Structures are given as structure tokens and as C-alpha cells.
Amino acid sequence: MSGGLKGFREFLKAGHPGTLFTALLYFDFCFAVWVLNGAMAPFIAQEFNLSPAQKGFMVSVPVIAGALMRFPLGLLSQYIGRKNAAQVEMGMICIALAFGYFFVESYAGVLAMGVMLGIAGASFGVALSLGSGWFPPKYKGLAMGIAGAGNSGAVLAVLFAPPLAKAYGWKAVYGISILPIVLAMVLLAVFAKEPPDREQKKMKDYLKILVDRDAWIFNLMYMLTFGGYIGLTSFLPTLFADQYGIPKESVGKYSAVIIVMASILRVLGGWMADRVGGLKLLYWLGGVIVAATAAAALLPANPWVMVAILVVCFSAMGAGNGAVFQLVPLRFRTTTAVAGSLIGEIGALAGGMLPNAMGLGKQHMGSFGPGFLSGTVLAVLVIVVLVMVTKQWTTTWVGEGGKARDEGRGGGHGHGAATPGSAS
Length: 424
Known about the structure:
Elements: H1 2-13, H2 17-34, H3 36-39, H4 41-48, H5 52-80, H6 82-103, H7 107-121, H8 124-132, H9 140-148, H10 153-168, H11 170-176, H12 178-191, H13 203-207, H14 213-244, H15 251-276, H16 278-296, H17 303-331, H18 336-365, H19 369-393, H20 415-418
């Protein structure tokens, strides 16, 4: 135990703890706002008498909108700094939440609000790059895992939004949510410090990542680990309400334990990836996700059996998130914010498709099973791609199994470090 504490103290001394933990809080509160409509979906669906397909689409809108905003925010952060970009984003979120509180009156208004909630979902690449920017390569996985644990904000949403919606009305939750965002803005302004790893380039140099093969392989991995996580997180309240008849105000109790495990395992996944290698860890986790999604597709009759299956599934996805983002800053050393934003964007777009698959499956086939099976297929594809690229990656820019190379033995070389935006 003392050795672990000593190691953690050494980790903190190697970077800037104030920046890391305020970046975590920034991401945490933004994530909670991002999934508000999903957390309140049973209340909104009841008020507007929505069909299963309409529910799925409503839940997917913030996810898709947030995904599309991630890459532009990442580009902005390369020019004005990640700390400044985060403050601009949170100011826009406060305006959006005020709009929701005062003006949303219809299903169309909820969809428009979903687009604005997407602003909060754009925080991902900026938060992770800001939080980990002060840490050396050997600690990148753990730093990224801690900053990325802000996806635990979904727990805040599913635990607090339904009871607040029942007590004060679901629109009031938008207004209440302004308070934590303002708190995050203040703490970030006081305690965060812009990391020194930002490299100024021309726009065309940043945009080269759009045609980088490795970036798109990371995109595929993140479609599985994060896309599956955010898609299911947004849909869990609807799943437990519609499939198992759980009261609207109580769905959070079933959803929270599932989401918490993903957040904890994200940190552990980053830590494990630093030690055994992100590639090796992703092989193992891909197999777990194949088994868990196939089991969930059977839709067990007991809701707690489904909870147990999804705890395993979310744990693997959360650890997978940490493993992917142990690798990303090793491959894209000076453009991590842009690379992370692109990868986060594509991953979240996949998450936006999942609620639609769930809703359409239920409406046209009478089951949520097809939505889960789409995750099974994607997990198999990711394992196949990992087999194809591991040898090349471990002989160019990353060490055995995906571990960071010893910088004294050429860890700063390879196409990942030398030409971080190059096509390959």
C-alpha cells in the first residue's frame, strides 16, 4: 500500500496536479450536462407521448451534436490554448442551459436543446490533453485515465436528474445544472495552468490528421470503447424503464453502478496500459466486450442480471478507453488535443447511432437485442484490426505490447513523434 502511495506521489510530482484535477472536474460536469436528456428521457417521453424510435432519436441528438463539435474545439484549443478553450465552451454551455430552462416547450424544442447540450460533449479532447499535458510519456496513461474519468459525470446525471425532474419538473434541471458548470469555470481559472506541449502549426498541418491511417484505426477502437459507453449510458434509463418497468425516478439506481464501474476502470485501464501496454490490454478487453454484449442481447428477465452483465461490459469499455488514450499521446505527441478530439468525435458519433439502433430495433423487431449485437460485431472487427497493426506499431513508435518506449533508447523517434500528423 505504501509503495502504491509513494508511486502516486511521484506521479503527481512529475506533472501539475492542479491542472489535472480541475480538468477532471471540467470534464465531469460537462459530461453530466451532455447526457441530461438521456437521464430525463422517461419524463420527456411521457410528456410528449413519444414512440420508441422518437425516444432513441431524442437521446442520440446530444451525443451526435457533441461528437461533431469535438474536432473544431480541439482545433480552437491549439490556437488559443486548452484552458481558454475550456472557459469559452463552459460559457456557451451556461447560455444553452438557460435557453432550455426558459424556452423549451415541445419535442422539437427538446431536439434543439439536444444540439445545444452537444456543446458540453465537445469537452473531451481538450480536457484530456489539458489534464495530461504536464506529464511525461511514462505517466500519460494514468494522467489520461484520471482526466478521462470525468465520464463519471453520467452518474451525476442519472442519479440526480430523475429525482429533480420529479420534484421540480424536467425543465428546471437545465437551470439547476448551470451551478456546477460555473463552479468548474472558477476552479479551472484559479488552479489550472496551460501545459507547455502545445505546438503552433498552420491549419493545413493540423488537418493532415484527417487522412492519417493510424488516427482512423484509433477511431475504430474508440467507436467500440467510448461509442458503446456513451450510447448505452444515454439509453440506460429508457432500457430499464421500458424493458423492466422500473419507475422513472428510480432508474438511476440501476444505471449508476454500471456507469461508476466504467469510470473507475478508465483510470485503472490507463494505469494497466502504462505497465502491460495498451495494445495487449485492448486484445483482452475486446474479448470481454464480445461476450458481454452477446449476453446482454439475450435480454435476461431479471433486471439485476442485466445490471451484472452491463457492469462487466462497461468495465471493459472503460478500461478500453484508458488503453486507447495511453496510446494516442505516444503516437501524436505535439497534437494530442487535435488527435484526441478527432478520435473522440468519431467514437461519440458511433455512440449516437446506438440509441437509434435500440429504438428502431424495439419499434420494428420488438426487441433491444439488435442494438447490443451491433456492439458484438464491432468488437470482433476491432480485434481483427489489432492483429493487423500490432507488429508495425511496435516496431516504429511504441514498445512491446503498446508500452511507452524508453526515451533514452529512441522513444522520441518513429513516425508517431517525428511527424505526428503524417499520413501512413
